[in-house]
Structure formats: structure tokens, C-alpha cells
Amino acid sequence: MRALIQRVSEASVSINGKVKDKIGKGVVIFLGIEEEDSMEDITYLTYKITRLRIFNDEQGKMNLSLVDFLNAKALVISQFTLFADTRKGLRPSFVRAAKPEFARMMYEMFTLQLEKEMNTRVATGIFGADMKVQLINDGPVTIWMDTKAKDY
User: Fold this and answer.
1) N or C end of the chain, less CB within 10 A?
2) Which of 43, 81, 142, 147 is catalytic?
3) DSSP type of residue 91
4) Is the confidence at residue 98, as pLDDT, over 80?
């Protein structure tokens, strides 16, 4: 499971020209899923993301996490292209990305687990839809995570 996390001051996702969901200060999580992913990957990733100290404290140092930062929100966007393999040729291969049925289930489970970790509703796009994501990256702060490269 891969996640690209961006700290944002605001973000929204639109489908067919209509805003589906939006957040203020928080994170946008672009989530890629592969067939080998499991509940262990979801548990690890949601725990780690919610506790990453990427928000500024009163002294301007990144010492606060999503669970520390009052009213911080999250927007989760499914993104199979995080598993693009560009080693050969000019057309990316997505063979490592999970099939849609499995990926949708894992995406929904990830979102539910993230809501439990944050103790609040999580904004989402629509799995498999053509989405337009707008965000203002705050910092900029962008973090890449891959559960297959984790170190407990």
C-alpha cells in the first residue's frame, strides 16, 4: 500500500464539475493499493499517518500530528497510478495496482480505519471516478509512504 500525504490549508475533490467533498487545514492522502495488501497494511498506515508530526506548534516547529491538531481533517483519494512502473518504455505499466473490486474494498476499509484513528469523519472522492482534486499544499509538506518498505 502506498500513500502520498500532503499537508494542506484546504482541499476539495470534484466529480463532473460538482464538489463532492472538501476540507480545511489537514492532509490529502492519495492512496494506492496492490493485491498483496492486507488489513495489516491499513492498520500500520492509518496509525502512522495520524501520528506523523507534520503540523507546526506555537514555535513553528513540526511537532503536532493529525490527532494532536484540533480540527485537522483528511481527504482520501484512491490513486492506482501510485503503482506506475516507468522502467520500460514511455507508457507506464500498472500491473502492480490491485484489481478494482479488491482495491475498492481496501480503500473503504482504509477510510473507516482512518476515521476511527482520527475520531472524525474523513472526506473522500469516489472510487474509480474521474476526479479533479484541488489543494493548497501548506509548506509545502509532502510525505511518501510505502508499507512494503516499513521498518517497525
Assistant:
1) C
2) 81
3) S
4) yes
